[in-house]
Amino acid sequence: AINSFSESVKLNPNYDLGWMALGNAHLALKEYDMAINDFNKVAEVTKDTNIKSKADESIKFTLNTKSIDFYNKGNELNKQNKFEEAVLSYDQALSISKDPKYYYQKGLVLSKLTKNKEAEDALRSAIALNDSFDIGYVALASLQTVNKDYDGAVKSYEKALTVTKNENLKSSIKESISKTYLSAGNNSYKDKKYDQSIEWMLKSINNSPSDAAYLGLVKAYIEKKKYNDAITALDNLKAIQKTVTDGAIAYYRGMIHLNKGEDNKAIELFTVALNDSVYKKASQAQLDYLKAKQKGTKK
Fold it and tell me: Do residues 182 and 208 lie in contact, with contact meaning Cβ atoms separated by under 8 Å?
């Protein structure tokens, strides 16, 4: 077909329909640049405004199709874990068309490469193009959590809540906000910022109660010597226990009684916690300490 159409325009270089047919043939073969040249030639030679309009539309369609091909190629490369190459394909797509989903996919792949700053920039570009791009805000929030920008993450999640119409996404976002506060609380605890940890954990619980958040609250309360509050938190944890083990509960109850000077009760609880592989070593250390303390007292 291309050979025939090419011959027709050689015979008559001003044959607009010949150039249009040639462009469509090149488009069918995904020879996009050649197709665009053909459609430009149509616009150049035709005297029919309708044909010129169709040529202009064909150019836009071809460019869009070309950008989609680069985008799909990027997705395939992403599936093959060829992340650097995938980013290049998304950039090629973006050089043709600024589409929010192109930036979104680029951001996700950049995050896999731990290029968090570039990933965040890409996701911000996505939501700048579409203020209602709910999954763009969710992806940004997730990245902000990784970057320990917890306030920013919560704001992004809250923005997603205001724009989304997906009820399933709304439910998952509320849980994600709670997990963000939990991450913030755990991070503050590691930094020995116990008051801040308590504040974050309470926010996590207020958004979506979890046994993990209650456990974080218990640990921070113990450090602040707020033992009654720690006991209350443990009771609340037990009521919704899902991921926290019985051994963990026994260990931290033991720590409360240890700090309150109730050694026998502490020994009883640390003995229970010995059955938990995670808390076995720490429980044994506390038991050794308490038994040595009691032996010294008897002497």
Answer: no
Query: Dmax of the chain from CA atoms?
Result: 116
Please provide the size of the chain in residues. Answer: 299
Tell me the Ramachandran region of residue 261: left when phi exceeds 0, alpha when psi lies from -120 to 50, beta otherwise.
left
Instruction: Kindly tell me the burial class for residue 121, based on how many C-beta atoms sit within 10 Å of its own C-beta (0-12, 13-18, 19 or more).
Output: middle
Element (H, E) at 6: helix 2-11
**CA 93 to CA 104: how far, in whole Å?**
12
d(CA 4, CA 1): 5
Which pLDDT score, from 0 to 100, does residue 299 have? 44
Backbone angles phi, psi at 13, to 5 degrees: -60, -15
pTM across the whole model: 0.74
Instruction: State the Cα torsion 81-83-87-88 to the nearest 10°.
Output: -90
**Which pLDDT tens digit goes with each residue over 237-273?**
999 999 999 999 999 999 999 999 999 999 999 999 9
Q: How far apart are CA 38 and CA 25, in angstroms?
A: 10
For 59, phi then psi, to 5°, come to -65, -45
